[in-house]
Design brief:
The complex is a heterodimer.
Chain A (H helix, E strand, L loop, with lengths): L2 H9 L6 H19 L7 H19 L9 E2 L4 E2 L2 H25 L7 H17 L5 H19 L6 H32 L14 H10 L4 H18 L8 H7 L2 H26 L4 H24 L4 H22 L5 H27 L15 H4 L1 H15 L5 H15 L3 H26 L23 H19 L2 H8 L2
Antiparallel strand pairs in A: 1-2
Helix pairs in contact in A: 2-3, 2-5, 3-4, 4-5, 4-11, 4-14, 5-6, 5-11, 6-7, 6-11, 7-9, 7-10, 9-11, 10-11, 10-13, 11-13, 11-14, 12-13, 12-18, 13-14, 13-17, 13-18, 14-16, 14-17, 14-19, 14-20, 16-18, 16-19, 17-19
Chain B lengths: L4 H17 L4 H24 L10 E6 L10 E5 L3 H20 L6 H20 L3 H22 L4 H30 L6 H10 L4 H18 L8 H8 L2 H11 L1 H14 L1 H28 L4 H21 L3 H32 L15 H15 L5 H16 L1 H26 L5 H9 L7 H19 L2 H14 L14
Antiparallel strand pairs in B: 1-2
The chains are: A mainly alpha, B mainly alpha.
Chain lengths: 505, 507
């Protein structure tokens, strides 16, 4: 090899993506183990997957202030910042939690087990890369890796028609969103590569070059169209109206741990991309992005909350309530144009949302029966009496999602409201408040089912009880759920250096 | 140690709740719970006794803790001024009474019940000890959530519906108040959320009149829902009717005072122009709505607990009227009234439940002549009723009297109407006492008593009731113990001759 190539290879600095590489290797190692381990010992593999990921997570947290922060690597494909470090931790943590829920949920199915963990880890690695992307090529490749992984995960319970249907719906809507995203990218690439315009660049897929071009051409029509298409593509991922149509069916059909993964990590991935794009790349087009995102935020909050009101299937309910959470987060993204505090608010909100959502999904996994798509509010009747632990975790998780003090979700909403107030977004703020109040009704309805309703239809002779038996809580799942609940409470009272770090953004 | 007393008063019940939910035997849990209620009560008495003279509107026992939100201007700052002190004492003592009553209640799932009540108690101590308006709101919510759960699980008739209605009404009220509080903070331009800084910043230049009107409107209706201002009161009788006794005692007695306290301590002094703009509508809503309309509704009640619930809505009319006078005298009357009403309504809820245990019904038409069997209970109930009417010698007298004095200067028509409220409360109060305790047993009651003869109050019921009665008499005979620090603070916060309006001009 010539010295230039060696130097270029060294410039790539592979060490910057060592967590992703390690996660990918661990994923492959699971498949190898499946071949070589005797069948009786296959139960070890999920344990290995979880402990391995926890090890990686610890390594990442300990190395949070890595020396490469603030630099770019791989010739500008990746950009490493504190925010991207935070999102990496976030995705790895979700991956661990999804794996833990996966163990519980898969035990009720006759399905191959190992591939599930493999795909979850590959998807997580892709999300971690996505949060650091600084180039449209990497962004698209990482996003497609995530999406393709989800096609498989959503239809993982292949004997369930609803799961297969969900997979198909996700495939079609995902393909549409990828097409829109690509269309936008191509428009931006084309217009920014036009040598007759000021600030044009041959490297116009690169975010830095694109930003320079957009700042030099603040009112270019083709660029505006491109930006709108890119935003539409991202809006699919976060489930913002009018790109939310896939959510209820896909959330219902997908296996519960995958629903959790979609609701938390996939949404967060969309927001980390959205923040990178609106803050850094499209910053000079705020006159375009702000109205588009504001209209989306209003529609998203109202639609999500109103549609969730009438749901009886808890998976659809939490999916639609997740739509409204995307709306609140969009407000913070808009406010971030003038208030740096709003960026911290997005991250705090996402983290609080992760804790609360996984707590709720954890309980759902335990209450669900073999028919994973059929999870009704009625199945929760008397939960608090028969399973006080699950009842308490559910109440804390739902309370935090509803934004009730002193839980972490309240602080997240408070930060967003304060940021919106400072940014003068009074209309959005009013819509958000209405949304929060409406949401209390359905979250509380769920708590009511678990706590207050003791009567349920008696099982007549000759009929079988349609309500599934609740899964006993294993030690690992119990410890996980308890830590999620405790973290939700503690983060509501005391934000400590975590709060200071986020607010100093 | 002594400098962290206020923090301890909040932390002790919360810790007790955490310990109980970690899993203890019922016997140990009762002891831990008792500790969790006794510690804040002792601290409340301690700070009352040692409250330094001559602090004026300043805060005593002040201590600040950083919880990580310093960059937003939010710090957990705890302290008491003359306005907060009476309510802090109220929270400590009513909490103790409600706690002791709950411990002996033998409720189903007692441990969870006690843990929730302790969380509520922790929140209540925090509400009145907070100098930072963010934490003032935060602790209120902390205390509010357990109320909903307690109504939903241990409630009586219509509990599920009552819990849902309470949740939605009170969440709306809390959201409006939160918006108003955030708006005060940002429009004032102060560097942080604590009241001392806010007041100092606003003394240099107030918020524009138009903005003040909007913010005060938000706070008035937000707090108004929480305090059951007519016509936003409908959650209250329903909720109290369904709530288990200790939760009703703590909510009607103490937590509801959050809104009035917010108006007296925060809204009126910081937004004097907005307050002046809204004073007349507020006073009319209070007098015509709460006092007169709800007064007549109360007379028409047949259910004892509903009657107590409606009467507490009615009495809030006096308090709103006092707030609307915008004067130091009126505000002082409101604080005294809140304390007195807190003790007396808690006592009424406690005794109603004790009556229910003996008659198996809340229906007034199915009782009668109970005094023959339960003379102590009857004496206590009559005392509580007299306190509610405002008989001299009991704490409520001073609050009502002061409010009427202040209201006379504000509007003579309203004062006359308001005083007629005393007659209304005498009618329903005495009528209830007569129907329950005097006359002959009704047929229904005779049947119940034949199955389970009524016994007089047990000591486990007497002790909590005596705590409340002692407080009512103590303040009734020696109001100075609260009014001196209260007055010192109000003279600074509400200067004579047009509260602050003359001092805080427009920006």
């Amino acid at each position: 090899m010539s010295p230039e190539l060696i130097k270029a290879a060294a410039d790539n600095r592979w060490v910057t993506i060592s967590p992703e590489i390690a996660l990918g290797c661990l994923a492959l190692f699971l498949l190898v183990l499946e071949i070589f381990l005797p069948k009786k010992k296959h139960a070890l593999i999920p344990t290995l997957a979880i402990t391995g990921q926890i090890g990686l997570l610890l390594g990442l947290v300990l190395n949070f202030q890595a020396p490469y922060l603030g630099t770019e690597s791989f010739n500008g494909l990746l950009r490493h910042t504190e925010e991207s470090q935070f999102m990496r931790v976030f995705f790895l943590l979700s991956s661990v939690l999804v794996s833990i829920l996966g163990v519980v949920a898969l035990a009720k199915q006759k399905m191959p087990r190992i591939e599930f963990f493999h795909i979850v880890m590959v998807v997580s690695a892709a999300m971690m890369l996505l949060a650091q992307s600084n180039h449209f090529v990497l962004l698209f490749v990482a996003l497609e890796t995530v999406t393709v992984g989800f096609y498989i995960l959503v239809s993982y319970f292949r004997t369930s028609p609803l799961s297969l249907e969900a997979g198909l719906k996700y495939l079609i809507s995902g393909a549409l969103s990828s097409a829109m995203l690509l269309f936008g990218i191509v428009l931006l690439y084309g217009v920014a590569g036009n040598p007759t315009l000021p600030g044009s660049s041959a490297e116009s897929m690169n975010f830095n070059a694109l930003r320079v071009f957009l700042e030099a051409n603040p009112e270019n029509f083709l660029a505006s169209v491109g930006i709108v298409f890119v935003l539409a593509g991202v809006a699919f991922k976060i489930g913002a109206v009018p790109f939310q149509i896939w959510i209820p069916d896909v959330y219902q059909g997908a296996p519960t741990p995958v629903t959790a993964f979609l609701a938390v990590a996939s949404k967060a991935a969309g927001f980390s991309v959205l923040l990178i794009l609106t803050q850094r790349v499209f910053g000079s087009y705020y006159y375009l992005t702000v109205p588009v995102l504001s209209a989306m935020a209003i529609a998203t909050i109202l639609f999500g909350n109103l549609a969730a009101l009438t749901q009886h299937n808890v998976k659809r309910l939490i999916g639609l309530s997740g739509v409204s959470h995307a709306g609140y987060l969009l407000i913070a993204v808009i406010a971030a144009n003038s208030q740096p505090l709003a960026v911290g608010a997005v991250y705090f909100y996402l983290f609080a949302y992760l804790l609360a959502s996984f707590a709720v999904f954890g309980v759902m996994t335990h209450v669900a029966g073999p028919n994973d798509a059929d999870q009704d509010l009625d199945h929760y009747t008397g939960l608090a009496k028969s399973h006080p632990f699950l009842g308490a975790v559910l109440a804390i998780g739902l309370g935090s999602l509803a934004g009730i003090p002193p839980l972490a979700g309240f602080m997240g909403k408070l930060f967003i409201f304060i940021a919106a107030f400072k940014a003068g977004l009074y209309t959005l703020l009013a819509v958000a408040i209405v949304g929060v109040i409406v949401s209390i009704y359905y979250y509380f309805g769920w708590i009511k089912a678990a706590y207050f309703e003791t009567w349920s239809a008696p099982v007549l002779e000759g009929e079988t009880d349609t309500r599934p038996a609740r899964t006993p809580v294993s030690l690992t799942a119990g410890v996980t759920l308890a830590s999620l609940a405790v973290a939700t409470i503690v983060l509501g009272f005391y934000q400590g250096s975590f709060g200071e770090w986020l607010l100093s953004k | 140690m002594f400098s962290h007393l206020l923090l301890l008063s909040i932390a002790a019940p919360l810790l007790a709740a955490a310990v109980i939910s970690a899993g203890l035997s019922v016997r140990v849990a009762k002891i831990v719970a008792a500790l969790g209620f006794v510690i804040p009560a002792l601290i409340a008495l301690h700070v009352w006794y040692h409250f330094p003279a001559g602090v004026g509107a300043d805060y005593a026992f002040i201590q600040a803790y950083n919880t990580g939100l310093q960059d937003l201007g939010i710090r957990l700052t705890l302290g008491l001024n003359g306005i907060a002190l009476p309510l802090f004492v109220l929270a400590g003592l009513v909490g103790l009474a409600a706690g002791l009553y709950a411990i002996q209640s033998g409720a189903e799932r007692l441990k969870t019940y006690l843990a929730l009540l302790l969380v509520m108690q922790g929140g209540l101590m925090g509400v009145f000890a907070s100098v930072d308006i963010f934490f003032f709101y935060f602790f209120h919510e902390l205390a509010l959530i357990p109320t909903f759960i307690m109504v939903g699980i241990w409630g009586g008739k219509d509990r599920s519906y009552a819990a849902m209605k309470m949740t939605i009404y009170l969440t709306v009220g809390a959201m409006l108040s939160l918006l108003g509080l955030i708006a005060i903070y940002y429009k004032s331009g102060a560097e942080n959320f604590d009241l001392i800084t806010l007041r100092a910043t606003l003394l240099e230049g107030g918020i524009k009149a138009g903005t003040q009107n909007h913010i005060f409107g938000l706070l008035m209706f937000g707090f108004g829902i929480l305090v059951s201002l007519w016509p936003l009161h409908t959650w209250a009788p329903l909720g109290y009717g369904a709530a288990p006794s200790s939760a009703a005692m703590l909510h009607a007695g103490v937590l509801k005072k959050f809104g009035l306290y917010g108006l007296v301590q925060i809204a009126v002094p910081l937004l004097p122009l907005g307050a002046a703009h809204w004073a007349t509508p507020l006073a009319w809503l209070a007098v015509a709505g709460n006092l007169v309309v709800i007064g007549f509704v109360t007379i028409a009640q047949r259910d004892l607990k509903q009657m107590v619930g409606y009467s507490s809505v009615m009495h809030m009319g006096y308090a709103f009227l006092g707030v609307a006078t915008l004067s130091a005298v009126g505000a002082g009357g409101v604080v005294l009234m809140m304390v007195a009403h807190g003790f007396s309504v808690a006592l009424l809820f406690l005794l109603s439940t004790s009556i229910y245990h003996r008659t198996q019904t809340f229906d007034l038409t199915e009782m009668g002549g109970l005094a023959q069997k339960t003379p102590v209970l009857a004496a206590f109930f009559v005392t509580a009723t007299m306190a509610g009417i405002g008989l001299p010698g009991l704490a409520n007298f001073w609050g009502e009297l002061t409010i009427f004095v202040a209201a006379w200067a504000f509007s003579k028509t309203l004062t006359v109407l308001a005083i007629s409220g005393v007659v209304i409360s005498a009618i329903y109060g005495l009528r209830a006492a007569a129907k329950v305790f005097f006359g002959q047993h009704t047929e229904a009651l005779t049947k119940v008593l034949a199955e389970k003869p009524a016994t007089d109050l047990r000591w486990s019921e007497k002790v909590p009731a005596l705590i409340l009665i002692a407080a009512l008499f103590f303040i009734g005979f020696w109001p100075k113990s609260l009014s001196v620090p209260l007055n010192a603070a109000l003279e600074v916060v509400y200067p004579a001759k047009g509260p602050i309006i003359t001092i805080v001009g427009q920006k």
